[in-house]
């Protein structure tokens, strides 16, 4: 029996994952900003659920929650950083408070929980950390720049972390969902639209038309399979058609860098000259 720590467990993908984790007999520390939203889980699964009210942006509260879970269940085997929101808006439209809140939840919230579980995982020399990123953690579309910036930060931190903790048999995986109807967009803040960026929103919607919405419930079996994989990947896409988008993205990046390599060489200078 494993013990999971899952943030954002009350809605969206997290709610499906919480049910699947408990259905298979594992222990679950489930967090949400309002613990009352987790009552159905505690009523159904009893002592195998520890429902915690948690704001992941509060580092002291995160540390206290992790400590409580470790004492209650005897350790945390799997951390799933799922809490987050998706700020819509062109870069110029987004307010300073909105931008900071986006980074606080999506990046720093995941950083604080990750740092909190690592000492215990290192001591036990085992553990799994699953970071819920996004296809937008690998590419960047118009009108989602600040949201995607938070995911790009999560991607970089997690890739470095994976190399740092592999010696302790701790595996880090970035989960990159593509398109799932979870109500995330409707529940997330929006910038005040400026007509000057109507074209950016239109481009976002046009790009989204190339993706097929997936079944949120199906992701539960995928995350359980990931948890059981002997050698889990650093990155995995949840959903289809993402690989095609990434091939286009990375081919374009390389082509652009090669086209402007003459400036790269100009900037290098001639190291042989003193």
Please describe what this structure looks like:
The chain is of the alpha/beta class and 274 residues long. 50% of the residues lie in helices and 14% in strands. Helix 4 runs parallel beside helix 5. The chain starts with a strand and ends in a 6-residue tail after the last helix.
- The percent range for strand residues is 5-15%
Give the rounded overall mean pLDDT: 94
The third-level CATH topology is Rossmann fold
Unreliable parts:
none
| Rg over CA atoms | 20 Å
Written as H for each helix and E for each strand, in order along the chain, the element string is EHEHEHEHEHEHHHEHH
Number of domains: 1
Which descriptor suits the 3D outline? globular
Gap from first CA to last CA: 64 Å
Largest sheet, in brief, is:
7 strands, parallel
Could you name the CATH homologous superfamily? NAD(P)-binding Rossmann-like Domain
Ordered list of secondary-structure elements with their pairings:
Elements: E1 3-6, H1 12-23, E2 27-32, H2 39-45, E3 49-53, H3 59-73, E4 78-81, H4 96-124, E5 127-132, H5 145-165, E6 170-177, H6 184-187, H7 198-208, H8 218-228, E7 235-238, H9 242-259, H10 261-268
Helix pairs in contact: 1-8, 3-4, 4-5
Which features characterize this protein?
single chain, 274 residues, alpha/beta, Rossmann fold, 7-stranded parallel β-sheet, 10 helices, 7 strands, 14% strand
